[in-house]
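EI: anyone free to look at a 214-residue chain?
SC: sure, send it
EI:
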Amino acid sequence: MSRRVLFEDVQVVPRLFQLRLPKDILLDVLDKAVGERANVTGSDPLGTPGTEMRRWTTRFLRDDIRLRKLGWKPCAHSQIEGIRNDSLQMKVAFMNTDQRTGVPEKSPANVSDRGSVAELLIAHNCSAGQSELFDVPAPEDPILAYDFWYLCAYVGEKHVAAELSRPTEITNSFVSDYSERIILWRPGDKPGLRRPDSVPEDFAEIELPTLTRI
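SC: here you go
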């Protein structure tokens, strides 16, 4: 079970400020990424929705001038694409997650399996703070020792949900526990991808008036 779940602004906003990831910036990044994701249609190849969401969220995180001023920069270390802050010794990567995203009582799971490097980063999260107690050796590569977080998002027809969460357990390549979850959008906070008809049915066909010459 998750040990800490923040979902009220009175907790979320100061915590994100502490992590130099202001809530308004993260929501702006996610909102733009969802807008790009909405362009995917049924004619696109299987897997395109998740790929597009990951692509655009990562790009907008890296390109955001406000985040750069807060010390964040692009990071593709060990082929885990995302951003990192060297002052905080923290790295963030995007992850598509399931319908449990943004639900305080549940824990989101990734929709595609994670690789061996992600498992290593998550294992380090789990052992962080225990090095002295249990004599756990630190990784030789300093970036592999960074605190590792996922910016999680679920994008569905009915709603969009998102959270910034710190994974601490992975089972069979799927994240199964977090030490901290910071909810950005709960189900119902942001509508999904289902779009209303652009033209109301009552006005879809308009009979043109008949013109006669006098």
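EI: Residues 51 and 96 are 9 Å apart (CA to CA).
SC: 👍
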